[in-house]
C-alpha cells in the first residue's frame, strides 16, 4: 500500500491496518469527503439558475401581452409562499436528495413553457414551479447543513466554521448565475431588443433548457443523506403536519429572525422590480440592464465567498450582518434624499456603484441567514428553512403585486422601516442566545 500524501495526513485521518489474531488485516474506513457534495450541489444550482435567473429578468419584456410575464412571476411567488408552509414535512418524507431532484422538474417546465408562452402554459408552469421551488430550497438548506455538520463531526472541526464555509461556497457559486446568465442573454440578444426576434428568443430558451438539463444530471450525483426524519409517519396526520408547520412559530428565536428574513425578500425584489426599472434604465437604457445585473451578481458572489469564510459563530454573524445592513441603509437613504438621475460619466458610475453595494448586502444576508438557521436549528432543519422561504417569498410576492400601485419612494420607506425593525430583532436575538449559552456553562 502506497504511503499517504502530506495533505491526506493533515486533512483526513490516516487509513491504518490492524492485524487480528489469525494474521488477517482489517482496514479502518476513512470518513467521507462531504465537501465533494457541496461542490456538486453548488455547480448544479449555478447551471440551473444561470438559466432561470436570466429568464426571470426577461419575463416582463419578452412576455408583454396582457402583462403575462409579470403576472406569471406574481403567481409563481405566491404559490412558492403557500407551498413553503408545507414543504418541511414533504422534504422529511422524501429526504433532501430526492427533494432536490424533484425540485428541478418545475424549473425545467417553466423554461419549456417560455418556448410557447400563453396563459395556458405559463400559469400552470408557474403554479407548479412554486411547489417544486419550495421543495428544492428547503431541501438545499437541509442538505447543506447536514453535510456541514457531518463534515465537522468526521474531521473534528468547529461546526460554525464549516457551516459558514460551506454556505459561503454555495452562495458564492449561486450568485455567479447573475453574471453568467446575463452574459448569455447579452450574447444571444445583442442584435436587437429583448423579445423583438422570436427566433433569437427561442434559441436563448433552448440554451437555458440545456443548462437546466446539466443541473439535473449533476443533482443525481449527490450522495444520499438520511436526515432524522424517521419519526415522521409514512402517511402523516393533519395534526402532525400542523405541528411541523406551527412549531417553529412558537420558538422565540424564529420570531426574532422572521423580520430579517422578510427584509431579505424585499431587498431581492427591489433589485428585480425597481432597481432595473427606475435606476438603471433611465441612466443606461434597457441595453445597460444586463451589465448592471452582472456587476450586482459579481459583487454578490465575491461577498458571499468572503462572508462565508469569515463566519465562525454568532459573534461573527452579528458583525457581518450589521455591516451589510449599514451598506443597504446607506443606499436607501441616498435614493430617498439625495439621488437624481445623473448625466455624463456619473450616469454610468452611479447605477453600477448602487448595484455593487446592493450585491454585497444580498451576499451577506444569504450566507448569514442560512448559517444562522443551520446553527440554531440543527435538530429541525427542514422546518427552519421552510420558514426562511415562506417569509422571503411572501415579501417578494407582495412587491411584485404592489409595485404597479405604489411609488418607488413609498417602497423604499417601507424597506427602511423593515430594515430597522429586523436589525433590532436580530440584535436582541444575539443577546438572548448569548445569555442562554452563558447560563448553560
Comma- or semicolon-separated keywords:
single chain, 441 residues, mainly alpha, two-stranded antiparallel sheet, 16 helices, 2 strands, globular, disordered N terminus
Largest sheet: 2 strands, antiparallel
Strand order of the largest sheet: 1-2
Specify the helix fraction band. Answer: over 70%
Quote the beta fraction: under 5%
Helix/strand class: mainly alpha
Radius of gyration: 23 Å
Distance between the termini: 47 Å
Mean pLDDT: 82
Number of DSSP E strands? 2
Q: Please state the oligomeric state of the protein chains shown.
A: single chain
Q: What gross morphology would you assign?
A: globular
Q: What's the number of helices? A: 16
Low-confidence stretches: 1-26, 192-196, 229-234
Give the topology string: H per helix, E per strand. HEEHHHHHHHHHHHHHHH
Mind explaining what this structure looks like?
The chain is 77% helix and 1% strand. The protein is built from 16 helices and two strands. The chain has helices at 6-11, 34-62, 68-84, 87-94, 96-113, 119-154, 159-175, 177-188, 198-219, 238-246, 252-284, 289-310, 314-337, 346-376, 381-402, 408-440, and strands at residues 17-19, 25-27. Strands 1-2 form a two-stranded antiparallel sheet. Strand 1 (17-19) and strand 2 form a beta hairpin. Helix 2 (34-62) runs antiparallel to helix 9. The longest helix has 36 residues, at 119-154. The chain is globular.
Amino acid at each position: 500500500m502506497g504511503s499517504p500524501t502530506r495533505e491526506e495526513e493533515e486533512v483526513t485521518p490516516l487509513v491504518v491496518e490492524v492485524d487480528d489474531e489469525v494474521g488477517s488485516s482489517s482496514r479502518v474506513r476513512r470518513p467521507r469527503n462531504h465537501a465533494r457534495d457541496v461542490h456538486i450541489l453548488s455547480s448544479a444550482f449555478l447551471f440551473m439558475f444561470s438559466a432561470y435567473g436570466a429568464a426571470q429578468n426577461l419575463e416582463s419584456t419578452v412576455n408583454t401581452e396582457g402583462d403575462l410575464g409579470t403576472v406569471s412571476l406574481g403567481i409563481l411567488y405566491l404559490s412558492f409562499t403557500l407551498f413553503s408552509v408545507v414543504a418541511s414535512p414533504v422534504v422529511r418524507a422524501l429526504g433532501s436528495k430526492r427533494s432536490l431532484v424533484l425540485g428541478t422538474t418545475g424549473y425545467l417546465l417553466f423554461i419549456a413553457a417560455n418556448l410557447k408562452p400563453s396563459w395556458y402554459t405559463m400559469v400552470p408552469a408557474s403554479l407548479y414551479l412554486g411547489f417544486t421551488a419550495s421543495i428544492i430550497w428547503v431541501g438545499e438548506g437541509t442538505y447543506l447543513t447536514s453535510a456541514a455538520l457531518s463534515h465537522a463531526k468526521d474531521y473534528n472541526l468547529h461546526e460554525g466554521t464549516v457551516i459558514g464555509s460551506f454556505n459561503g461556497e454555495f452562495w458564492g457559486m449561486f450568485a455567479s448565475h447573475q453574471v453568467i446568465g446575463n452574459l448569455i442573454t447579452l450574447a444571444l440578444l445583442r442584435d436587437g431588443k429583448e423579445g423583438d426576434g422570436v427566433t433569437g428568443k427561442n434559441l436563448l430558451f433552448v440554451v437555458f433548457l440545456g443548462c437546466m438539463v446539466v443541473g439535473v444530471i449533476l443533482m443525481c450525483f449527490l450522495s444520499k443523506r438520511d436526515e432524522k426524519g424517521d419519526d415522521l409517519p409514512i402517511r402523516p396526520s393533519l395534526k402532525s403536519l400542523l405541528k411541523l408547520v406551527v412549531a417553529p412559530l412558537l420558538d422565540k428565536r424564529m420570531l426574532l429572525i422572521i423580520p430579517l428574513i422578510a427584509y431579505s425578500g424585499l431587498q431581492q425584489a427591489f433589485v428585480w422590480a425597481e432597481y432595473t426599472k427606475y435606476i438603471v434604465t433611465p441612466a443606461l437604457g434597457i441595453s445597460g440592464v444586463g451589465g448592471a445585473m452582472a456587476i450586482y451578481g459579481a459583487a454578490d458572489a465575491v461577498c458571499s465567498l468572503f462572508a462565508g469564510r469569515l463566519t465562525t459563530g454568532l459573534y461573527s454573524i452579528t458583525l457581518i450582518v450589521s455591516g451589510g445592513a449599514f451598506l443597504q441603509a446607506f443606499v436607501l437613504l441616498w435614493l430617498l434624499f439625495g439621488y437624481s438621475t445623473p448625466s455624463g460619466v456619473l450616469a454610468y458610475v452611479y447605477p453600477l456603484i448602487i448595484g455593487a453595494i446592493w450585491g454585497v448586502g444580498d451576499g451577506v444576508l444569504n450566507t448569514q441567514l442560512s448559517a444562522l438557521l443551520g446553527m440554531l436549528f440543527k435538530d429541525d432543519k427542514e422546518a427552519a428553512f421552510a420558514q426562511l422561504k415562506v417569509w422571503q417569498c411572501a415579501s417578494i410576492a407582495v412587491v411584485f403585486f404592489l409595485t404597479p400601485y405604489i411609488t418607488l419612494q413609498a417602497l423604499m420607506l417601507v424597506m427602511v422601516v423593515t430594515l430597522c425593525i429586523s436589525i433590532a430583532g436580530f440584535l436582541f436575538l444575539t443577546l438572548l442566545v448569548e445569555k442562554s449559552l452563558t447560563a448553560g456553562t
